[in-house]
């Protein structure tokens, strides 16, 4: 099964908002609300940022928000800050009872 | 505080075997599904395998099915990944991850620091 489709890179200036898309199929993103997002800084383990499409774990800034429409999920980061510069990955549960990740998006804060 | 500590990585020859371990603490281990996720050098995350809290259900990516075996010892709070018939494509950092909501292994709220597996002659 191919990875979920994410843009390779996005960028924004401090204070701006950016959105990262994550496109799957009717067998994964479109079929389940178990869509999550992870932030990964270089050399570090991924950090859990969003679960069940739009829920934030305790401790995650409310500048991070998630949504889904059909087969595409999205992560929006508002009020960009320098420390948001990282790789972001989406994931989804699938009808095959597996998990699939997106290819990852490199966020650059200009 | 939840802690996941992987061990067992290293250099192995193609066709060889390796067993990874993940020692868990800070939560009721048996209540949560656990998973292995890997990341090849410079590449993205790839889900490898998951196991239910009881150990009665296991799930594998097609890329490792038949070669890798996931297991757990709830008395020792430890997760394992037995890897065999290794190829260069298995070279990656392997992360142990705890399921966020408990039952279905689908979203991961805590991750270990990772252990590097290098398959090379």
What is the compact description of this entry?
The complex is a heterodimer of chains A (110) and B (121). Helices cover 0% and strands 44% of the residues of chain A. Chain A is mainly beta and 110 residues long.
Keyword list:
heterodimer; A: 110 residues; mainly beta; 3-stranded antiparallel beta sheet; B: mainly beta
Describe the structure.
The complex is a heterodimer of chains A (110) and B (121). In chain A, a hairpin with a 6-residue loop joins β3 and β4 (47-50). Chain A has 110 residues and is mostly beta strands. Chain A has strands spanning 9-12, 18-23, 35-40, 47-50, 64-69, 72-77, 86-93, 99-101, 105-109. In chain A, the strands form two sheets. In chain A, strands 1, 3, 4, 7, 8 and 9 form a six-stranded mixed β-sheet that branches. Chain A has a three-stranded antiparallel β-sheet with strand order 2-6-5, with no helix packed on it. Chain A is globular and about 40 Å long. Chain A has no helices and nine strands. In chain B, the strands form two sheets. In chain B, strands 2, 4, 5, 6, 9, 10 and 11 form a seven-stranded mixed β-sheet that branches. In chain B, β9 (92-99) and β10 form a beta hairpin. By secondary structure, chain B is mainly beta. Chain B is built from no helices and eleven strands. The mean pLDDT of chain B is 96. Chain B is globular and about 40 Å long. In chain B, 0% of the residues lie in helices and 50% in strands. The interface between A and B is medium-sized, with 26 and 25 residues.
């Amino acid at each position: 099964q191919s990875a979920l489709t994410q843009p390779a890179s996005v960028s924004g200036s401090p204070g701006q908002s950016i959105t990262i898309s994550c496109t799957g199929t009717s067998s994964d993103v479109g079929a389940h609300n178990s869509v999550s997002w992870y932030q990964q800084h270089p050399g570090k383990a991924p950090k859990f940022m969003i679960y069940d499409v739009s829920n934030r774990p305790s401790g995650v800034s409310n500048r991070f928000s998630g949504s889904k429409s059909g087969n595409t999920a999205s992560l929006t980061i508002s009020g960009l800050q320098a420390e948001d510069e990282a790789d972001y990955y989406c994931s989804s549960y699938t009808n095959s009872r597996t998990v699939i990740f997106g290819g990852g998006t490199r966020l650059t804060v200009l | 505080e939840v802690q996941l500590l992987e061990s067992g990585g290293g250099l192995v020859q193609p066709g060889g075997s390796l067993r990874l371990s993940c020692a868990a603490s800070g939560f009721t281990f048996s209540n949560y599904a656990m998973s292995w996720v890997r990341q090849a050098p410079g590449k993205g995350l790839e889900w490898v395998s998951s196991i239910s809290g009881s150990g009665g259900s296991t799930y594998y990516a097609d890329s490792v099915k038949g070669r890798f075996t996931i297991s757990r010892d709830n008395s020792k709070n430890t997760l394992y990944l037995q890897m065999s018939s290794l190829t260069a494509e298995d070279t990656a950092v392997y992360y142990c991850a705890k399921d966020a909501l408990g039952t279905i292994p689908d979203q991961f709220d805590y991750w270990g620091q990772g252990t590097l597996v290098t398959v090379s002659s």
